């Protein structure tokens, strides 16, 4: 019997951001000696949920999901709760879901083998240092590789739970990052997706004091020189650290995809101050217009929170004003959600849910109108598309350099390749086109 044949089965569900996706890849790699993945939960020997806690809804989802796992799992199968919610709930997870076998916080992924073997194991130390840990290799996509460049976050945005789930910020040494990227490109990946909570603050602190002096712009430049790297993306940069050097490297380096995430959060300087974001409305507008001037093809995406404590109509109008001025290509917008351990949770003037809901609807409908105008202007345009996904009915999908999702008729042999596509029917979420 081959070793492969005798492997146990692992079912893993990932909620939340790209960092969680990468953590799940690390978990799969660490367990690879003993487990292979399955998407059939009923045949799994180990069921894992890798959680997000940035808003309240995914936390509820966690408990409804594990309740469902308990009902359908085969006898003897173990259930583990990993990730950000695991970090802040710790052993409280057992109180709400006693059938859970272990709890493993974000930043503790390297302990997964011990967790699986130890009854009621809990490890949620947010200062655990995995910044130099050599994780095994596993990648969900052969075409695009996620690469962590830092862990944790030193910002203390007053609404955000992440500093309590992922701990202080530590940059990963550049040689580890460059080697990982070389391995990924040797395996055929052409696109590298760099991950961190504050990528453009890279290089501020390392865990070993080997005197590296490097910032994010330098790192991008080094990565762009690696053979086989054709596209570099990253998330998330912070508007505060968008200095001229960074905007220049972004604009002039042809390997860097012209799509920038600029999380605004609020357009009101007073609310930004209460959020401890460190920039003003004017700074944000200045950086966005500088970026558009340097880089006419850039698409700018953003995150916006409405209904932060104390947000007045006038504050919200400031957010709408930034929306009009920047004309973001993509907006991820959320109603403020009270999170445990955060300063905003106890601020006075919490906003009524119906007011926040109405603001969210207004923001989203106005953005839809803007987006309709933006995508209408794409008819007839020709883009280089990197195809990554086979879809139903003989269609394939991929992304333009500036991050629009494009769909065209085509088959498997185009996966992992670039082709020119002329846009025929643009929609909000996907631009339909023809390969030319
Ligand atoms: N409520 C609503 N949205 C939040 N985010 C982070 N914390 C909260 C919260 N408490 C949003 C921010 C962040 C994105 C990942 O999630 O917009 O950029
Ligand atoms: Fe949270 Fe702010 Fe850190 Fe982003 S920068 S993870 S919003 S604390």
From TrEMBL:
SUPFAM superfamilies: Radical SAM enzymes. Its cofactor is [4Fe-4S] cluster. It is an enzyme of class 2 (transferase). PROSITE patterns: MTTASE_N, MTTASE_RADICAL, RADICAL_SAM, TRAM. Keywords: 4Fe-4S, Cytoplasm, Iron, Iron-sulfur, Metal-binding, Methyltransferase, S-adenosyl-L-methionine, Transferase, tRNA processing. It catalyses: N(6)-dimethylallyladenosine(37) in tRNA + (sulfur carrier)-SH + AH2 + 2 S-adenosyl-L-methionine = 2-methylsulfanyl-N(6)-dimethylallyladenosine(37) in tRNA + (sulfur carrier)-H + 5'-deoxyadenosine + L-methionine + A + S-adenosyl-L-homocysteine + 2 H(+). [4Fe-4S] cluster 2 binds at residues 153, 157, 160. One of its GO terms (cellular component) is cytosol. [4Fe-4S] cluster 1 binds at residues 17, 52, 84. Monomer. Catalyzes the methylthiolation of N6-(dimethylallyl)adenosine (i(6)A), leading to the formation of 2-methylthio-N6-(dimethylallyl)adenosine (ms(2)i(6)A) at position 37 in tRNAs that read codons beginning with uridine. This is tRNA-2-methylthio-N(6)-dimethylallyladenosine synthase. It comes from Campylobacter devanensis. The gene is miaB.
């Amino acid at each position: 019997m081959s070793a492969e044949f005798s492997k146990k089965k692992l079912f893993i569900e990932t909620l939340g951001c790209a960092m969680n996706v990468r953590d799940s890849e690390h978990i799969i790699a660490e367990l690879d000696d003993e487990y292979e993945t399955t998407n059939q939960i009923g045949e799994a020997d180990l069921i894992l949920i890798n959680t997000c806690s940035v808003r309240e809804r995914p936390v509820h989802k966690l408990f409804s999901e594990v309740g469902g796992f308990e009902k359908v799992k085969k006898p003897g199968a173990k259930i583990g709760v990993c990730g950000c919610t695991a970090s802040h709930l710790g052993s409280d997870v057992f109180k709400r879901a006693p059938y859970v076998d272990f709890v493993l916080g974000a930043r503790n992924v390297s302990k997964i083998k011990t967790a699986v073997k130890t009854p009621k194991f809990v490890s949620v130390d947010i200062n655990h240092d995995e910044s130099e840990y050599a994780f095994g290799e596993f990648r969900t996509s052969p075409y695009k590789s996620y690469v962590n460049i830092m862990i944790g976050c030193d910002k203390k945005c007053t609404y955000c739970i992440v500093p309590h789930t992922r701990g202080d910020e530590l940059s990963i040494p550049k040689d580890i990052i460059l080697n990982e990227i070389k391995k990924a490109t040797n395996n055929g990946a052409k696109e590298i997706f760099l991950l961190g909570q504050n990528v453009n603050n890279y290089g501020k602190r390392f865990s070993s004091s080997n005197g590296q002096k490097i910032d994010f712009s330098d790192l991008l430049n080094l990565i762009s020189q690696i053979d086989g790297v054709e596209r570099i993306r990253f998330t998330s940069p912070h508007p505060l650290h968008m200095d001229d050097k960074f905007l220049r490297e972004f604009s002039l380096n042809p390997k860097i995809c012209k799509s920038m995430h600029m999380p605004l959060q609020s357009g009101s300087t007073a609310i930004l101050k209460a959020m401890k974001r460190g920039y003003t409305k004017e700074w944000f507008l200045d950086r966005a217009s500088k970026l558009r001037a340097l880089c006419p093809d850039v698409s700018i995406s953003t995150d916006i929170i409405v209904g932060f404590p104390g947000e007045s109509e006038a504050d919200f109008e400031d957010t709408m004003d930034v929306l009009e001025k920047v004309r973001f290509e993509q907006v991820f917008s959320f109603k403020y959600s009270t999170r445990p351990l955060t300063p905003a949770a106890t601020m006075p003037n919490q906003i009524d849910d119906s007011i926040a809901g109405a603001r969210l609807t207004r923001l989203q409908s106005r953005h839809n109108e803007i987006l309709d105008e933006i995508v209408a202007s794409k008819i007839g345009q020709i883009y280089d598309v990197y195809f990554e996904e086979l879809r139903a009915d003989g269609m394939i999908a991929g992304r333009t350099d500036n991050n629009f999702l494009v769909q065209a008729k085509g088959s498997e042999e185009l996966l992992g390749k670039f082709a020119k596509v002329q846009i025929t029917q643009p929609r909000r979420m996907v631009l339909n086109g023809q390969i030319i």
